[in-house]
């Protein structure tokens, strides 16, 4: 999910995706504004395949989660961080940054990899 706010970690997500794509080709499903993805494509350069979905109903979002191999969540600060929980409810493993709110439900190594641990 791309949100365009610095503390949501969009740049970290894009860096990770670019690095992973160098080793294993990926097709990224972005949920967010198409204009934001165009902006990142022009400024950062997205050298991997991707699709963009905006303003999707809950049923479509659940299908997107369920058809994914992994959910990447790079927010530095969250009130609760619902998207990773939704992904886990759909049976999708999550790679995420360590933010305080997600610690309430995300256990490193159990359907979730703490990104700060993973980077070491």
- Poorly predicted sequence stretches spanning 5 or more consecutive residues: none
Name of the CATH class: Alpha Beta
Structural class designation: alpha/beta
CATH superfamily caption? Glycogen Phosphorylase B
Features of the shown structure:
three-stranded parallel β-sheet, globular, 5 helices, 120 residues, alpha/beta, Rossmann fold, two-stranded parallel sheet
Q: Your description of this structure?
A:
The protein is an alpha/beta fold. It has a single domain, classed as 3-Layer(aba) Sandwich (Rossmann fold), CATH 3.40.50. The protein contains five helices and five strands; from the N terminus they run αβαβαβαββα. Strand 1 (27-31), helix 2 and strand 2 (49-53) form a beta-alpha-beta unit.
Protein topology:
Elements: H1 10-23, E1 27-31, H2 34-43, E2 49-53, H3 58-66, E3 71-73, H4 82-89, E4 94-96, E5 112-114, H5 115-118
Parallel strand pairs: 1-2, 3-4, 4-5
